[in-house]
Amino acid sequence: MDARRIIETVRDGGVPSEDSLRTFAVGLATGAVTDAQAGAFAMAVLLKGLGEQGRVALTRAMRDSGDVMRWDLAGPVLDKHSTGGIGDCVSLLLAPALAACGAYVPMISGRGLGHTGGTLDKLEAIEGYRTQVSEADLRRVLSNTGCAIVGATGRIAPADRRLYAIRDVTATVESIDLITASILSKKLAAGLEGLVLDVKVGSGAFLAEPAQAQALAEALCQTANGAGCATRVVLTDMNEALAPAAGNALEVAISLRALAGEDVAPRLMEVTCSLGGALLALGGLSPDADSGRREIAAVFADGRAAERFDRMVHALGGPPDTVEGGLARLPEAPVVREVPAPADGTLVACDARALGWTVVNLGGGRQRETDTVDPAVGLSDIVPLGTSVSKGAPLARIHAAREDSAQAAVEAIQEAFQIGSDCTPSKLILEEVGP
Question: Do 86 and 30 belong to one domain?
Answer without folding.
Answer: no
